[in-house]
Amino acid sequence: VEVKIEVVIPEKERNKEEMSPNGKASPLIYKVNGTARHYHLEEHPIASNPYHNPKDVVEASVCHVKDLENGQMREVDLGCGKALLIKESGEFYAMGHKCPHYGAPLVKGVLSKGRVRCPWHGACFNISTGDIEDFPGLDSLPRFQVKIEKEKVYIRASKQALQTQRRTKMMAKCISLSNYNLSSTNVLIIGAGAAGLVCAETLRQEGFSDRIVMCTMDRHLPYDRPKLSKSMDSHPEQIALRPKEFFRTYDIEVLTEMQVAAVDIKNKTAVFKDGFKMEYNKLLIATGNTPKALSCKGKEVENVFNIRTPEDANRVVKLATSKNVVIVGASFLGMEVAAYLAERAHSVSLVELEEVPFKKFFGERVGRAVMKMFESHRVKFYMQTEVSELREQEGKLKEVVLKSGKVLRADVCVVGIGAVPATGFLKQSGINIDSKGFIVVNKMMQTNIPGVFAAGDAVTFPLALRNNKKVNVPHWQMAHMHGRIAALNMLAHGMEISTVPYLWTAMFGKSIRYAGHGEGYDDVVIQGDLDDLKFVAFYTK
Fold first, then answer.
1. Molecular function terms in GO for this entry (predicted)?
2. Rounded CA gap, 98 and 141, in Å?
């Protein structure tokens, strides 16, 4: 059998990025028919000029060797862009200075054990390679050459990399896509959120060159879902995680508006709602969750929304402008929507069963401080009550009636009362699902069925920092990591998950960032000023 392998690498990527620390080009491993084979790119020593286009290169003296102590970082200007200079264990390193996720200045982050952690959302980068090692975000950082001459530190960098401040890892492509049967794939990914996309990208980064198919009920390619409630008037193309060309370039096929109705594990087949069947070799289930709907009288009236798609978010903003909005549920989604609409709507009312927002998550004192901030921005709270009826006029929402008897004027209503895992289609599959509907996986994101993996909001997994307690962590960062771990274990790397859960929420220009897993805490220790919202809270047990 003759196997032809073609590696296509953009010239600048080959020259700039594929260096390993020993100065040799890193080997690529392509798996062909399950067999690992090594292919080296052309080898050249690091001392030779790694930038083929001299016009694209800038070299500048940035400081004296004694200007930086070990463990220090400094943002330095090379004339046509900035870099982050780092000194650790007597060595100097230089790389991009902005986090590729949302552009945070990494100099304000934390340097520890050979990694820089982003100050905003916790993404983590290796200082030797620039590679992303914890999420959120998809791209790594460009890495620049450092040399010391006469006690001065020089950085040599590509102008383009200084301007883009990001680097997409080199990826394989699919070999002879035209030979495939349309109804079979090597890897099938159900769901096109962060977990599904990171899984597909990781497979390609690791040299996997067989067919990958992602399917989603959404009509869009993967997008930045947290922005739906934080930046509600964003259009789909503005929040796309990757452009259309990316999927074409790396042969990642995405089937939109396709819903899987059942999985036949015996025949390794996914059955779609329209009757189409697709065979797979490896399967990732990353279907996320489904928002809970209201069950009260009048729930079918028009202008009542769960924010599920960019269209939902855009429509709510349009309907809410200068009108009366009622939000049901002081969840992250409910509170973010309230904050976004407070300046735009005539009135914003928030209805919640608990006595303070986020009580279960942040505790009463933090919840009350956040509530005070919202009240100062004209958001009215109706606590310890729920909706008993939605009233309409000519089919459209007019009033929201509460169990307390209070009647609220409402032109639009947003429901954020939690979600359930979207796993109903797996009930008869034999895949292990717990009593709440979550898919049970091990530390390698494997289900009880060989070759079937699951990731993201729909799973419970063993959390290392809580003695491997099975937890569900529906955070954006965690979904990325799940997708990566699942991909590596599809390729038999034996990689276990050990990341720390991290989430953030942004409201009225304030950001609350949360690290760890505080479920079951019995005390909250607060340092700083809660009233001024400049504080750290420790959740202890």
1. 2 iron, 2 sulfur cluster binding; metal ion binding; oxidoreductase activity, acting on NAD(P)H
2. 8
Tell if the pTM clears 0.85, that is, is over it. Answer: yes
Please, what is the average pLDDT of the chain?
Answer: 90
Residue 177 pLDDT > 90? no
Contact between 168 and 452 under an 8 Å Cβ cutoff? The reply is no
| Sequence-ordered strand ranges (E) for 353-422 | 379-383, 387-393, 396-402, 407-409, 412-415, 419-421
Cα–Cα dist 499/482, whole Å? 10
Distance CA 140, CA 311 (A): 30
Alpha carbon separation from 434 to 248, 264, 395, 427 (Å, rounded): 37, 19, 40, 10
| 165 touches 157 (CB < 8 A) | no
Asked whether residue 306 carries a pLDDT value surpassing 80, the answer given is: yes
Token readout for 42 is 């052309």
Q: Is the peptide bond before 222 cis (omega within 30 degrees of 0)?
A: no
pLDDT band at 43, cuts 50/70/90? very low
Concatenating the DSSP letter of every residue in 113-174 gives TTEEE-TTT--EEETTT--EEESS-S-B--EEEEEEETTEEEEEEEHHHHHH--BPPP----
Q: CA dist 119 to 98, 105, 110, 217, 385, Å?
A: 11, 8, 7, 34, 38
Q: pLDDT tens digit string along 339-380?
A: 999 999 999 999 999 999 999 999 999 999 999 999 999 999
Cα–Cα distance between 440 and 462 in angstroms, integer? 9
Q: Which of 123, 163, 140, 240 is nearest to 480 (CA)?
A: 123
Instruction: Write the CB contacts of 38 (distance below 8 Å, at least 6 apart in sequence).
Output: 27, 28, 29
The average pLDDT across 418-446 equals 97
Nearest to 135 by CA among 110, 117, 111: 117
Residues 6+ apart with CB under 8 A from 352: 329, 330, 334, 381, 382, 383, 384
